[in-house]
Fold this protein.
Amino acid sequence: MTAPTYTRADFQTDQEVRWCPGCGDYTILASVQQFLAGLGRPREEFVFVSGIGCAARFPYYMNTYGMHSIHGRAPAIASGIAATRPELSVWVITGDGDALSIGGNHLIHALRRNVNLKVLLFNNQIYGLTKGQYSPTSEPGKTTKSSPYGSIDYPFNPVSLALGAEATFVARTLDMDRGHTQELLKAAYEHEGSAFIEIYQNCNVFNDKAFIQLTGKEERVHNRIDLEIGKPVVFDEGAKAIVLRDGSATIVDSSSVDPGAILVHDPTRPDPAVAFALSRLSHGPYGPTPLGIFRNVHRPTYESQMNAQIEAAREKLGDGDLSKLISSQGTWTVKEASSNGG
Amino acid sequence: MADQIATADPSTTPSETLDRVVIRFAGDSGDGMQVAGSRFTDASALFGNDLATLPSFPAEIRAPAGTLPGVSSFQVQIADFDILTAGDQPDCLVAMNPAALRKNFKDLRQGGTLVVNTDTFDERNLAKAGYDKDPLDDGTLDGYRVIKVPMDELTKEAVKDTGVSGRSVLRSKNFFALGLLAWLFHRPTEPTIEWAQKKFSRTPEVAAANVAAFKAGYTFGVATEAAKITFEVKPAALRPGTYTNVNGNTALAWGLIAASRLAGIPLFYGTYPITPASDILHELARHKNFGVRTFQAEDEIAGVGAAIGAAFAGSLAVTGSSGPGIALKSEGISLAFMMELPLIVINVQRGGPSTGLPTKPEQSDLLFSLYGRHGESPIPVLAIASPSDAFELTIEAARIAIKYMTPVLLLSDNQVANGSEPWMLPDVDAIAPIETEFAQHPNGPNSTFLPYMRDIETFARPWAVPGTPGLEHRIGGLEKEAITGNVSYDPANHQLMTDTRAWKVANIVDDVPDLEINGDEDADILVLGWGSTFGSIRAAARRVRLAGDKVATTHLRYLNPMPRNLGDILNRYDKILIPELNTGQLRKVIRAEYLVDAKGLNKIAGEPFKISEITDRILEMIK
């Protein structure tokens, strides 16, 4: 059988896409559809699972199998799919409220188990579908409808959180950089196990320009730190570099250090400490912020271990025999003529 | 051979033959009373008695030793006829310490046999149990047959050459008590000895100590003629067949495995540990060679979530919990209902609300099961009547879930889950397969797939699993347009879909067998039950009949939809009694749905009905 040839249109559905005009979700949808079309893998083998929120409408627009489930639970539901059908490619589409607030528990546990899921977290740092409350990634002091005096919540750094859960693949990209997004989608797809990608996604209605420091023509030159595998971590046209100092990743002037002291990016380090240090360079898209793959390590997937146990049990005990099972606690037989006479 | 102690003449002590006897083992929760009770039960089962058991243990794993909250007990009734419950009152009580005596003595039948471990009756333990004076000497026990045994000392002596030491020595005293009871009730000894040797094969010294203590207990009875009289209960004339002794949790787990085989799809169990449902997980996790996948989720919500995912992907998906956990799963169950996916939800009820009485039986989740979800979301509800009913009804739950593409709630409770009774093994090859067909081909115009195109008879939508070419589709919690399954906010469509989902579930009544009347069809009074009260109601009715009065009983295993002939039956009787371990939940439903003046007998005390409680209420209503 030859691989099917697809175009982006093959992954589009007949449903009208209903995000606000100008929403970053459109760009991400296009990136994902284009990426999948390029794989040449039968589209019936893809499953997209989402929770609730603007991002969660995503599966309706993907001509694959899909489920628009309940708030926060997509990683759990997707775990059930991936655990029982390892041959499928299972994707979770989620947002900052869905993944980090109501569904925080499911996210970290799916990541630690290393279920073969690709989690795309659309982080717009605001609640969009409920019309503009602060989210668990909103910056401190943010004034919203639910925080007229400014938010007093300390925000999550999603990459740090995923690394803390010891996710085997952790990355960050930007909605409007389709090339970069597709590069990371490819790496996540090829990774065996949980892959977590935080996608900075602009909400032009409730939180416009939240990522301007990374997207603005002027600003991005100074702030975007591209993590390139095997290369020294430098940015700002080479003027700035990252070194490890006192256990932290620190920004220095490239000219002030020996080139050998500059951190060479290696996401395959077994210990997540350096990746974590990189994730702490910024606490949100403010100032110099790393994009790219923070971590990409190998650990057996949940489902491969689950299936190995089943195979081992079958090998050792043979395929289950129902009659034997229900007799396994000892039996006794009452004969036809049996009567105690008493 | 050393194991052949049972062939020895059980001394010259005279014996009396009884038709039934109730025995309760009671001790500290570290004293191994559940093990002693289970072993006594298994030996009796293999001997051929009918039996029923009722374990009772504290919610704390190890409450402070010697205290009243730390008392754990196991009650078993054995009989030479088909009994229905573990009995109201023990005829024989084993009390391993003062707390066990204090907590259980009031239940012992007047003049019954008391076996007591005198070594624990020191000042400290007496004080912990709240005794001012030693009840062994102050006349409290007058009128009872008391067997005083220094069990600690005798156990130490018995195990001294087996290699166990330190605290392990006294761990065998439950086997000493068991040995003594084996003598007292003429139980076969081989099953217990074989069990101990197999169970502790990895620690031979523990196996040897337990066997030695067991034999010492038996020999103590023989040698000292510890009782003036011993008791025999002959085998019961059960229906011909092969039996095993099983508790409800185990039988339920086996039913799930069987259902997966019958449906030809793998079993997935997504769950979070909770008393008293965890043993279902434990049992399933052992049987991976049946292709069983167990998923111990991060919480209850993830348990149902993962099961929903597995259902979408084509497994026989199951989630299990107890009341508080089901509350957490409620949103997920509604999602499964909306998406019309097959899912079995097991609720092993316990005393509530909140953490309530986590190790005690109660039937207080009925209304919650029938109505406890947001939106209009009726789902089928089935309730297991007894441990021997669990296997069959679990398969039935799976059959309904798959045939009608719906979540099904399967109710059990702590009494069914942990109680045990003989179960006649079914011929597994003769059980009808569960027809399971995944959609393979487009069902709409232009090779489109319509995920909400329904079967004309069952109203079920097709089950199209990921990986099937040409059937790519999306489902979700938003209201669906009829047939296409596209998101729809159309008012008329929501009405239609709400009605259709309700019709679909109501229509399951075609698969619900008519209720049968047990007892006197022409009685004036009908006793209606559901769930674990089955045994007590039947036994109570039997007593009423023995006393010369007429009574009919019937039992609901299907709570939604209810059997078609229920209305007719209710109208045939002048008086209707509904005993429940709640404040009247089924009664409320019956009165509302059938407009009959049903009366209740309601108990919410963390224990099953005594047969006498139901008998008294029936007689009171007859008069």
Residues 73 and 331 of chain B are 38 Å apart (CA to CA).
